[in-house]
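Section 3.1: Structural characterization of target chains.
Under the original work plan, the team committed to producing a structural model for every single-chain target entering the pipeline before any wet-lab resources were allocated. The record below documents one such target. The sequence was received from the expression subgroup and is listed exactly as submitted; it comprises 381 residues.
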Amino acid sequence: MRIGINAVNIRAGGGLNHLKEILLNLDPAMFNIEKVIIWSNKSTINHIPDLKWIKSIDVSKTINSWVGLLKWNFKILYNELLTERCDVLFVPGGTYLGKFHPYVTMAQNLLPFDKIERKKYRYSKSYFRYVLLELTQKYTFKKADGVIFLTNYSHKKIINESIGPIGGVVKTIYHGVDESFFNTSRQQKDIFKKSNVPTKLLYVSIINYYKKQINVVKAFEILIKKGYDIELELVGPAFSPALVELKNYISKMNGLKNKIRYVGNVENKELQKYYNNSDIFIFASSSETFGMILLEAMASGLPIACSNVSSMPEILEQNGEYFDPNDPISISQAIEELLINKKKRIYYSNSVIKRAKQFTWEKCSNKTFQFVTTISKNTKG
């Protein structure tokens, strides 16, 4: 079997890591795969495993404009798939507008379908990009022979609130987590309101409206006023308008801004150090297709105060303290429960690692390619 992968819009972050990991963990003989042909940009191809059964094709010059991208989707890719004698097309980026069949796509971005969160970007370039993505991905999902969702929540959210019934086969396949994030030696200390070593709170995620960092900072204020000796680190890239708003708020916090540090984006190896050097993890997002960062924090054994909406309860289950991400008081109460209750922290620290071990890239890869190859065989049969 020959599988084509349209990865032209896979450039960084979770999408790139997913593509790399499912290929690294694939045994092609298990699914009778002769060749995997990947069309993408040079930057992405540099991260693709250099294996004899993988053929990578750089199409950067072909799709260097909107016109080129449209031509690629409607005509060029179809001819490429025929030339490479592909039996099935896999579209992990979620958008395909051409006529080749069978093809399997993935839903990796919830924001285009989350109309409540999307409204916060109104009149910006991001808003119109999300609207366009909703239209193109809705078309893609409707026409697809198979659709992969990352959680049952995202499946129901996208189908029920935006797309409606689709004719293809649907399957939920969880992402995996890199084994390097696991920390089974974490110790839980006694936390006192007055101590020589502040308790370190960590929130890793892009600074963005739906990530609710301002509400986390407001919750932090509440805890400081109660006398807790705590520090907060915010790690991750930023959507510029949201970062400006966050920094303006922090600058007005009398005497507290030195206790909050925005680190910016860091590489995975350095990110592990932040997990390992922190005491409590906070995840306050209100819209997630999966929650990869949450899973990394779970693997690191951090006690977690977590948003109670979107896909998070499906991933974390009953292994953390939940809060309403739109309510700073609720956030502060969840964090405080972890601060004052060492037994809970010990329990959660152990239980999140056990839960995280259920998410492996090998399992994700096998389920993905089993699904793709089955779709191919069933469609042609």
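The first helix runs from residue 13 to 24.
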